[in-house]
Amino acid sequence: MIEPHAPAPPGAPPHWRRPVRLPVRPDVGRFLVLTCVFVCAACGLVYELELVALASYLMGDSVTQASVVLSVMVFAMGVGSLAAKRLRHHAAAGFGALEIALALVGGCSAPALYAVFAWTGDWGGLWASGPHALLVAFSLAIGLLIGAEVPLLMDLIQRIRRQDAGGAVADLFAADYVGALVGGLAFPFLLLPFLGQLTSSLLTGAVNVVAGSALVLGLFRRDVGRRARRLLLAAAVAVLSLLACAAALVDDFERAARQAVYGGVVRVAVRTGVQEVVLTGGTGGRPLDLYLDGRLRAGGDERRYHEALVRPALSGPHARVLVLGGGDGLAAREVLAHPGVHRVDVVEPDPGLVRLARTDPALARLNGHAYDDPRVRVATADVFHWLRGAPTASYDVVVADLPDPGITASAKLYSQEFYGLARRLLTPGGRLVVHAGPAVGRPRVFWTVEATMRAAGLHTVPYRVDGPEEGFPGGPDRGVSRGPHDWGFVLAGPTARPPLRLDRRGPPSHTLTQAELTADARAVLRTRVTGARVSTLARPRY
């Protein structure tokens, strides 16, 4: 069907004077263009969320990763919109090429980022290295392509049925924003839980290339030259085939990447809905390593970490003990080793980790089958929310065995409000012990934790112990330390500073001595950072 010729709007490009040839009525064609806008907007937002989610998982600090991705993409979208002016004379062919390129770049972004992370071993460091540079590059490329869509779609929709610019913009952006809403909701509630990050990215790319190619090669095929149609069709088939092959091999790719990341035979890899739990070793005489979201949580030196965390806090009344976090059961193991413990409550947000700690033979053996002890009771809940409903003065000891304070998702568990809730649960002579990150490796974070606890009305005793010589720490600290590593802790009481000593009534320590603990407590004072600010929910300082 050929649309009757109508005058071009003022300032329109010369090709608008040519009639557009459509195989359908103009109103149907307009609906199909807006539908394509809807689908492409949903795909674009999924690419954006994929980058943010994967970067947060691989590199930590979700606020920084989200800020980098969003700011770079928005900037690139503006540049892409300006660059698209040169394509408006060939809007249909240009849009088809853009969507094919966007499907390739966006669909492969998550696998490529994961591959570089796995095989380069870059866990942090300079923004000019490894996954960080690739994250910026993908954000820039995807933003450029998304930004170039809007001028070309505006051109196409106006050529179908010309209207005032304001009305066309309203229609276009309505479809775009609704599509973004659908993509934004589909990612966390459908794609991520059911398909995972890599498959979701590849599937989104496939949807993108099909939608863009169908619009150009179907609706606007008479407006594109024969040679251009063939090239677009060949490119679309090639990209779709590549994405399909990658999706078919994604399980093998993930297994190989895990081997590269964890450096050993991965025996268990489970995505629990809260985090990824990986177990390596534990059979055939190989030591067991437990990783949570890529960070070593329990390794060869875990006993030293957990003894340093638990034993000084239990030097005093300890009939009722609360363990916050510690779903692996290792902190509970150390608590149960002391005589006089009548009850241990473990609050862990990840039921999958607790289930694995109960059922995996190697992990259950490492935690001394703590969850089979009738004195242990487990609550799977958000730690902060659980504390708000707990009765006051109900525990002699609270052990905070939580992820690193430098991880954004954990920042609220190292806030003044959190320590105020924990203090409320302690008996008058009770003790709270907190893992506060490495005192030597990151002194500002460590002393921020200590200052925040004091601001909550707690009387603190900071201390540290030496960790492994190199590699990952066997505790919840973030990142790799190349060189000597330490674990920092803060012991505190609600009414007075508790003494820093090992419980003489407890079993002999495998890794600590009282002299060593006292010397390390003196040494940690030399790392003090003056002027460390208090961290609150509204103003996190980590």
TrEMBL record:
Catalytic activity field: S-adenosyl 3-(methylsulfanyl)propylamine + putrescine = S-methyl-5'-thioadenosine + spermidine + H(+)
Membrane-traversing stretches: 28-47, 67-84, 96-120, 132-153, 174-195, 201-220, 232-250
Compartments it resides in: Cell membrane
EC nos: 2.5.1.16
Keywords: Cell membrane, Membrane, Polyamine biosynthesis, Spermidine biosynthesis, Transferase, Transmembrane, Transmembrane helix
Residue positions binding spermidine: 306, 328
Main location: membrane
Gene3D superfamilies: Vaccinia Virus protein VP39 (3.40.50.150)
InterPro entries, per database record: MFS_trans_sf (IPR036259), PABS (IPR030374), PABS_CS (IPR030373), SAM-dependent_MTases_sf (IPR029063), Spermi_synthase (IPR001045)
Pathway annotation: Amine and polyamine biosynthesis; spermidine biosynthesis; spermidine from putrescine: step 1/1
Binding residues for S-methyl-5'-thioadenosine: 275, 348, 382-383
Domain PABS, residue spans: 247-494
GO molecular function, one term: spermidine synthase activity
Enzyme class: transferase
Active site: 401 (proton acceptor)
Membrane topology of the entry: Multi-pass membrane protein
Function: Catalyzes the irreversible transfer of a propylamine group from the amino donor S-adenosylmethioninamine (decarboxy-AdoMet) to putrescine (1,4-diaminobutane) to yield spermidine.
Assembly and interaction partners: Homodimer or homotetramer.
Family: Belongs to the spermidine/spermine synthase family.
Record-given protein name: Polyamine aminopropyltransferase
Organism name: Streptomyces vulcanius
